[in-house]
Amino acid sequence: MVYRKFIKRGDKIYGPYDYHSRKRNGKVITDYLGKHKKEERMVETFVVFMLIGIVFIAGFFSMNIFYHDEISSLPFLKNIFFMEKAIYFNPPAGVNAIFVDPTSQSVDQGDPVTIEIKGQVPITESDIYAIQFDVDYDPSILTFNAPLVEGDLLNNDGVSTIFGYDDSVPGKLDDVYISRNNTQTGTFFDGVFATISFTASSIADGMSDITLNEVIWVNSTITNDTAQNITPVINNGNVTVNFIVNDPPIVSNVECNISGIWSSCDTIDYGDVVQGVRATCIDPDGPVSSVGFVLNNIPDSINLIDGTEISGVGDVYTYDVNPYLTIEDSGNMDFTVTCFGNGGLSDTDVSSWLIDWGILSASFVYPQTDINVTQNLFSPFTSNLTCSGGECGDVDMILDPIFGNTDLSGGYSTITGLTNSRCDIFTLSEEGIVKNISRSGYVSGAGNCAMAIYDVSGNNPNNLIVQSAQQPESVLVNTWTTYPVTDTLLSPGDYALCVNCDVDYYMYIHSTGGIFRGHNADPYPFNDPFGSIDISGSYAMNLYAAYDIGVPGSKSGAVSTTIGAVPFYTSVNPQICSGLKDGDDCEFTWQVNATGDLDTQHEFYVINTPITYAGDVMPVDTPHVFINITLSGAPSCTDADGDGYNITGAGCGLVDCLDSNASINPGVAEICGDLVDNNCNNECEYDSSICSRGDSACLVDALGADVPGDP
């Protein structure tokens, strides 16, 4: 934009000066183009001086009259005084003036406000060639709506004008400039300099002054050096914004377009296609500014829909989902519709529902039945996992065999009449679930008896893990009585299998391992399960189904990834299936080396445990198969660097301490001073008999991970 500007210094006005402003990279850049050249008008200047002389003579004459007739000459003297001093607090008609119109107005919050900056230039006063001024206002009460519109005062006779302003600072219209162009004359006219459009605040209320500042009024006596500054009467104004009570908008009739059919949004299910959303929004106090639609998937903390609609058909606002949204997320959903009114108030509707989670199903691809495997050789185990009906997320696939038998038994005591515990101790090497406990034998009396398992280590409350119900007891001979118990998970550790009766009697148990006592006058649950009393009778106890073979996700001991581990090891366990959704499946194969004893049987299955949505997606196990180690084979040896030495050890010979470097193995000679345990004998140069004590400590020990100074 090209514009002109006057500069006021003291009592003189300089200019006009031409400038060019433009935006570049978001910044306003202003270039000075030079001083505007306008022909000096000698004749007009002469006429002006003549008029000034006439005024001076008239003034002198009036002063003489004043001295003779003070009362009659006062009005004319006032005019001379005001014209010379330009002090117009309450100017009479027919003076140069710039003023705000209307002077005062009152509006409500949010209303539009129009203000005109007017001027009067009577023929009896100085003409006007250009004007420059600032307009100040309170930006917390009023918001300026660009553009500022030029009025007709300076172009009323068809002369072109130059017009410009700066609105970059809220609260000020800076350097509003209007100048006649391509003419030598000014104008006499009453009209509008500029029209300003504001919007009253919808939040704040109060009064904003409309103040005219830095007014520069230039008449047609302008030359190339200075301009004639005319000081006009300045009248300011104000705008009062009234507080209004604003009723909030109302949102209703929220619906979703599901595969072309408008219906309640809480019917959206997995796999549905959402094409659009809509709601009715009404503001009693005026137009609705906008309506927001947000569909949030809570488990993933993501917005599946997040849009705003600003125009509606009547009171219905529709947001088209583009591209269409196919629901591929499960879990809790929140759909929030917010209607924003014209007064800053809003109304919100929230609907919530659950989209079904996926269901996992698992199977063994190989083996599908019991098989025999060869000791020390690898055998494949392949499992498949499928997700259906919803989202399953990431899932751990853990190859997790059950080692050994599922029954643990007590025994028979052989000594009678001595002091001992009434419990048998056994060690559980894996996690498991207690299913049943049972007993058999005879006692010397009758009473109500029960059996229980105690945690010897004391990690469980009161040490009591599980207890059978009390049963009437008399003499039992070679008859097993089984007591079902509530499933209780056991961690590996030492446990005691105990019997207790609530009446005084004696019993003894014939077996290796000492005397078992069963006398106790206290009712169950037990007190002091390891107490000492005299006993008489015979008894046997049994714990069976100690492992969980029916509750998904119960671990008994995952196959180790440590090379050479017994009874099995593999390279990766668990495997991970990632991002499973409806219809997805994944398949993994474990290469498992059977290092356990010959003629042992192990129950294999895969536990599939959700990671991302644990607690929402249920774990699932594959069917169980039994693996029998029946044949002996050569051990499987690992030699990654091909130097003839294996990292496996055991039946594979000497251990290669650094299997990634063929120059380091038990068959090479030690090199003194190279800071390396070359021959894997676990001795660095400092300790080696073939190296002097002056050599450095080794850098790499038998594990290939040492540092200088650490032999």
In short:
This protein has 711 residues and is mainly beta. It is built from two helices and 45 strands.
Tell me the CATH architecture of the largest domain.
Sandwich
**What level of helicity do the residues show?**
under 10%
Helical/strand content category: mainly beta
Q: Quick one: CATH class of the largest domain? A: Mainly Beta
Structure characterization notes:
- The chain is mainly β.
- It has six domains: 2-85, no CATH class; 97-242, Immunoglobulin-like (Sandwich); 250-355, Immunoglobulin-like (Sandwich), CATH 2.60.40; 359-403 and 550-632, Immunoglobulin-like (Sandwich), CATH 2.60.40; 407-544; 637-711, no CATH class.
- Strands 5, 7, 10, 11, 13, 14 and 16 form a seven-stranded mixed sheet that branches. Strands 4, 6, 8, 9, 12 and 15 form a six-stranded mixed sheet that branches. Strands 31, 33, 34, 35 and 37 form a five-stranded antiparallel sheet that branches.
- Helix 1 (42-68) packs antiparallel against helix 2.
- The chain is elongated.
- It starts with a strand and ends in a 79-residue tail after the last strand.
- Mean pLDDT is 73; it is low at 38-91, 403-421, 442-446, 474-479, 502-539, 542-554 and 692-711.
